[in-house]
Specification:
Blueprint lengths: L1 H35 L3 E9 L4 H15 L5 E10 L5 E9 L2 H18 L3 H8 L2 E8 L5
Antiparallel strand pairs: 1-3, 1-4, 2-3
Length: about 140
Protein backbone atom coordinates (compact mmCIF):
# COMPACT_ATOMS: atom_id res chain seq x y z
CA UNK A 1 0.00 0.00 0.00
CA UNK A 2 2.76 2.45 0.96
CA UNK A 3 4.69 1.56 -2.22
CA UNK A 4 1.64 2.23 -4.42
CA UNK A 5 1.03 5.52 -2.62
CA UNK A 6 4.69 6.51 -3.01
CA UNK A 7 4.67 5.61 -6.74
CA UNK A 8 1.44 7.59 -7.14
CA UNK A 9 3.01 10.63 -5.48
CA UNK A 10 6.15 10.36 -7.65
CA UNK A 11 4.05 10.04 -10.84
CA UNK A 12 1.93 13.01 -9.76
CA UNK A 13 5.05 15.03 -8.97
CA UNK A 14 6.62 14.19 -12.35
CA UNK A 15 3.40 14.98 -14.18
CA UNK A 16 3.03 18.21 -12.25
CA UNK A 17 6.61 19.36 -12.93
CA UNK A 18 6.27 18.48 -16.61
CA UNK A 19 3.01 20.41 -16.78
CA UNK A 20 4.61 23.38 -15.00
CA UNK A 21 7.57 23.27 -17.40
CA UNK A 22 5.20 23.10 -20.37
CA UNK A 23 3.18 26.00 -18.96
CA UNK A 24 6.35 28.04 -18.45
CA UNK A 25 7.41 27.36 -22.05
CA UNK A 26 3.99 28.27 -23.41
CA UNK A 27 3.87 31.42 -21.27
CA UNK A 28 7.34 32.39 -22.48
CA UNK A 29 6.28 31.92 -26.12
CA UNK A 30 3.16 34.03 -25.54
CA UNK A 31 5.21 36.78 -23.88
CA UNK A 32 7.72 36.76 -26.76
CA UNK A 33 4.94 36.99 -29.34
CA UNK A 34 3.21 39.68 -27.30
CA UNK A 35 6.49 41.63 -27.06
CA UNK A 36 7.01 41.40 -30.83
CA UNK A 37 3.60 42.97 -31.34
CA UNK A 38 3.91 45.66 -28.68
CA UNK A 39 4.62 49.28 -29.48
CA UNK A 40 8.33 50.06 -29.41
CA UNK A 41 9.42 53.32 -27.82
CA UNK A 42 12.78 54.46 -29.13
CA UNK A 43 14.36 57.04 -26.80
CA UNK A 44 17.56 58.94 -27.56
CA UNK A 45 19.28 61.37 -25.22
CA UNK A 46 21.98 63.57 -26.70
CA UNK A 47 24.49 65.75 -24.88
CA UNK A 48 25.59 68.45 -27.29
CA UNK A 49 28.20 71.14 -26.61
CA UNK A 50 26.71 74.62 -27.08
CA UNK A 51 28.87 75.34 -30.15
CA UNK A 52 27.56 72.16 -31.88
CA UNK A 53 23.86 72.84 -31.30
CA UNK A 54 22.98 74.38 -34.68
CA UNK A 55 24.51 71.64 -36.85
CA UNK A 56 23.09 68.97 -34.57
CA UNK A 57 19.54 70.39 -34.78
CA UNK A 58 19.77 70.62 -38.58
CA UNK A 59 20.54 66.89 -38.70
CA UNK A 60 17.81 66.06 -36.17
CA UNK A 61 15.25 67.88 -38.32
CA UNK A 62 16.30 65.88 -41.40
CA UNK A 63 16.00 62.60 -39.47
CA UNK A 64 12.65 63.45 -37.86
CA UNK A 65 11.12 64.42 -41.22
CA UNK A 66 12.43 61.19 -42.77
CA UNK A 67 11.11 58.77 -40.13
CA UNK A 68 7.61 60.32 -40.16
CA UNK A 69 7.11 58.85 -43.63
CA UNK A 70 8.17 55.32 -42.75
CA UNK A 71 5.72 52.44 -42.37
CA UNK A 72 4.80 51.71 -38.77
CA UNK A 73 5.73 55.15 -37.43
CA UNK A 74 3.17 56.37 -34.87
CA UNK A 75 4.58 59.61 -33.49
CA UNK A 76 7.62 61.35 -32.12
CA UNK A 77 8.34 64.05 -29.59
CA UNK A 78 11.41 66.08 -28.70
CA UNK A 79 12.47 67.72 -25.46
CA UNK A 80 15.37 70.01 -24.68
CA UNK A 81 17.14 71.77 -21.85
CA UNK A 82 20.51 73.26 -21.04
CA UNK A 83 22.56 71.65 -18.27
CA UNK A 84 24.66 73.41 -15.63
CA UNK A 85 27.73 73.23 -17.93
CA UNK A 86 25.98 74.95 -20.85
CA UNK A 87 25.52 71.72 -22.82
CA UNK A 88 22.40 71.34 -24.90
CA UNK A 89 20.52 68.23 -23.72
CA UNK A 90 18.11 66.91 -26.33
CA UNK A 91 15.79 63.91 -26.07
CA UNK A 92 13.70 62.33 -28.78
CA UNK A 93 11.00 59.74 -28.32
CA UNK A 94 9.77 57.89 -31.39
CA UNK A 95 6.95 55.38 -31.11
CA UNK A 96 6.67 52.51 -33.57
CA UNK A 97 3.88 49.96 -34.08
CA UNK A 98 6.03 46.95 -33.22
CA UNK A 99 9.50 45.44 -33.20
CA UNK A 100 9.45 44.44 -36.88
CA UNK A 101 8.65 47.91 -38.21
CA UNK A 102 11.26 49.46 -35.93
CA UNK A 103 13.87 47.10 -37.34
CA UNK A 104 12.87 48.08 -40.89
CA UNK A 105 12.94 51.77 -39.94
CA UNK A 106 16.51 51.43 -38.64
CA UNK A 107 17.50 49.78 -41.92
CA UNK A 108 15.82 52.56 -43.93
CA UNK A 109 17.64 55.24 -41.93
CA UNK A 110 20.99 53.50 -42.46
CA UNK A 111 20.28 53.18 -46.21
CA UNK A 112 19.42 56.88 -46.35
CA UNK A 113 22.67 57.78 -44.58
CA UNK A 114 24.64 55.66 -47.02
CA UNK A 115 22.88 57.19 -50.04
CA UNK A 116 23.67 60.75 -48.92
CA UNK A 117 27.19 59.86 -47.73
CA UNK A 118 26.41 60.84 -44.15
CA UNK A 119 28.46 59.31 -41.33
CA UNK A 120 26.75 59.86 -37.97
CA UNK A 121 29.71 58.50 -35.98
CA UNK A 122 32.02 61.00 -37.69
CA UNK A 123 29.62 63.86 -36.96
CA UNK A 124 29.26 62.90 -33.30
CA UNK A 125 33.05 62.61 -32.89
CA UNK A 126 33.71 65.92 -34.68
CA UNK A 127 31.05 67.79 -32.69
CA UNK A 128 31.82 65.98 -29.40
CA UNK A 129 28.22 64.73 -29.06
CA UNK A 130 27.38 61.81 -26.82
CA UNK A 131 24.24 59.73 -27.06
CA UNK A 132 22.36 57.30 -24.86
CA UNK A 133 19.93 55.15 -26.87
CA UNK A 134 17.42 52.61 -25.59
CA UNK A 135 14.29 50.86 -26.75
CA UNK A 136 11.43 50.57 -24.31
CA UNK A 137 8.06 48.88 -24.38
CA UNK A 138 4.87 50.06 -22.83
CA UNK A 139 4.62 49.22 -19.17
CA UNK A 140 1.73 47.06 -18.03
CA UNK A 141 -1.05 49.17 -16.66
CA UNK A 142 -1.88 48.59 -12.98
Amino acid sequence: MKTHLLIGIIVLALFSSKTNAQSATINSQIETKKSENMKQIFIDKFIVPAQSKQEFLERVNINRKFIKNLNGFIKDEAYERTDEHGNFIFMTIAIWENEAVLKKAKEAVQASYKKEGFDIAEMFARLNITMDRNIYKESAKP
